[in-house]
Amino acid sequence: MDLIVTATSQGFLWGIMALGIFMTYRILNLPDMTAEGAFPLGGAVAAQLILHGVSPVLATAISFVIGMLAGAITAWLITKGNVPDLLAGILTMTGLYSINLRILTRANLSLLGEERLTDFLSGLHLPSSFDTLFTGFMICTVLIFLLVSFFKTEIGQAVIATGDNERMARSMGISTSRMKAVGLMLSNGLVAMAGAMIAQDNGYADISMGIGTIVIGLAAVIIGEVVFGNLSFTHRLICVILGAIIYRLIILFVLLIGLEPNDLKLISAVILAFCLALPSLRKSMHLHFFDRKEQNER
Amino acid sequence: MSVNTILDIQGLSKTYQQKTLNEHQVLKELSFQVNKGDFITVIGGNGSGKSSLLNAIAGSSIPDKGKILLSGKDITRLKEEQRADQIGRVFQDPLMGTAPRMTVAENLAIAFRRGKKRRFRRGITANEKELYMDLLAKLGLGLERRLDSEMGLLSGGQRQAITLLMATMKKPAILLLDEHTAALDPKTAQTILSLTSQRIKEEKLTALMITHNMQDALTYGNRLLMLDSGKIVMDLSQEEKESLTAESLILLFQQHSLGFDLSS
Ligand SMILES: Nc1ncnc2c1ncn2[C@@H]1O[C@H](COP(=O)(O)OP(=O)(O)OP(=O)(O)O)[C@@H](O)[C@H]1O
Ligand SMILES: [Mg+2]
Where are the membrane-spanning stretches (chain A) (predicted)? Predict the structure, then answer.
């Protein structure tokens, strides 16, 4: 039971990161690698700030802003430098590795005994992990509300249009470079913020904590889509969070059946590969049945 | 340039893959004027430069030489999105003009703000939705009932009708149509063509329409241009057009493309 609560609360935190991945991979249709650097960047910035006595709330907020800057660099490379999307993200990510090391000053920075974002709930004397669960739930709810409101504005709609049909967006007078910048900044801000919160939850920030960020984020996005299907925008965001929780539960399960934490990256990759291939697998297995059904629906 | 001129193209040239073996001049010192209210049909063989001309006007490619004045303003080097307030466009591919994952209403709302700066305001208001219903109803295709459907669920013809509406709902200085019925079945193509002509009349639009259908080129519009290897080789007025049949136009067309074939 405890383990499930822990896994679920981690799901909320990783879900915030997955929302960031959703912004780039799904809304902007842009494979952004920056996230792998922005995630530890957020963790490093928050850890260092907290160790210097900054309040966890402020430290987490600053991580968000610093993450946005990382997104802005990638956006600048793509729109002004005409660097291909994938390469631009890889460049920022690689550069960030050195910057993250500078911020951390060593490979691993412990936060044991420091204040945490969840401390404001300590007065309630919740059982262990429930404070993270509540904090994660509340932050996710607020974030989804804010994101849904944002994407209903003219700018939000312009970002969606840019990802959906860039040529059409430009012919409608939308500055697609600016919208890509908005999307990339928002995405990496969320990813860095998740990095800050997960560092606090783990009790340390680590230079290698970003490895696999994109695989995990995408796995959450795609698990959400596979399990819950094609939905409205608000529901898609909620499903990203649910996808992240399911992902953490799957991880919990494989650990319980005896695999080691060191195997986790491999497991993440296998889960994502499986989810990505699932639609084609399903098709090739029930080809005729599904074809007929699709035709009837037309 | 008369006061009636809305689009003035002066000595437009464009060469692709300059200074390579594949160097290819697609527009050659091309000049012409368009009067306000003109509906011009444009014909010409494959590769004669029709799309290149429209791309230069719309800003999706920047010419090497020459000038484009639209409503008296030099737009030659403006970015596509910077001149979008003046230009309505329908592409050949019905998938090109709309965003598939957005709803019909959301697509129309994007078009309703064509060329306006996007702000942190509501992306679509309740009043707008009523306006869109009315506009869609006028198309007579029952699309007003699909306002909240995702665009990707509609057929090519339905999407092209909506693209046409999107290109014209905020009146453009010029409407650019690039074989916008070529990918549709003959019946749908005729529907879209008559809707096009209806919108142009209703809104008193100025339009350039590329087509490979000689009959359509004669039936619609008040002027006809024929392009061949990047130049205008024929410019017919309304009266001249009326005296022609599709057969005689094909003959003229063949004479010109034959000349091109012999020279190359
Ligand atoms: N981006 C590009 N790079 C290189 N060559 C190009 C490019 N775009 C067009 N061309 C060439 O320019 C020439 C003119 O093309 P354009 O599309 O304007 O012809 P078109 O008259 O529209 O023909 P169609 O009737 O086939 O649509 C063609 O030979 C084409 O191969
Ligand atoms: Mg063409």
Answer: 12-28, 57-79, 86-104, 124-148, 181-199, 211-231, 238-258, 264-281
Examine residue B108 and state whether it is found in any structural domain, yes or no: yes
Task: List the single residue in B80, B87, B106 with the smallest CB-CB distance to A157.
Answer: B106
B19 in any annotated domain: no
Cα dihedral across residues B117, B122, B127, B133: positive or negative: positive
Q: Is residue A265 part of a domain?
A: no
Residue B257 in any domain: the answer is no
The CA distance from B97 to B160, in Å, is 7
Chain A residues close to B153, C-beta within 8 Å: none
User: The tokens of B250 are what?
Assistant: 């094909």
* Residue type at B162 in one-letter notation: I
B13 strand-pairing partners: B65
Task: Tell me if A154 and B118 make a contact (CB, 8 A cut-off).
Answer: yes
Residues B26, B62: Cα–Cα separation, whole Å? 13
- Cβ within 8 Å, pair B102-A169: no
What's the total number of domains in chain A? 1
The answer to which of A203-217, A259-273, B132-146, B221-235 has the lowest mean pLDDT is: A259-273
Is A168 part of the contact surface with chain B (CB cutoff 8 Å)? yes
- The domain tally of chain B equals 1
Residues of A in contact with B164 (CB under 8 A): none
pLDDT at A291: 45
Q: What is the average per-residue pLDDT within B132-143?
A: 95
- ipTM for the complex shown: 0.92
Which residues, judged by CB distance below 6 Å to any ligand atom, belong to the binding site of ligand 1? B 16-17, 24, 26, 44, 46-52
Q: Do A165 and B98 touch (CB under 8 A)?
A: yes
CA distances from A177 to A184, A229, B56 (A): 11, 31, 20
Residue A255, C-beta contacts closer than 8 angstroms, at least 6 positions apart: A261, A264
Closest partner residue to A173 among B98, B114, B119, by Cβ?
A: B114
Q: Which residues surround ligand 2, an ion (CB under 5 A)?
A: B 51
Burial of B99 by CB count in 10 Å (0-12 exposed, 13-18 middle, 19+ buried)? buried
Compute CA A72 distance to the chain's CA centroid, rounded to the nearest angstrom.
17
Beta bridge partner(s), residue B15: B25
Of A120, A140, A115, the residue nearest A131 (C-alpha): A120
B159 assigned to some structural domain: yes
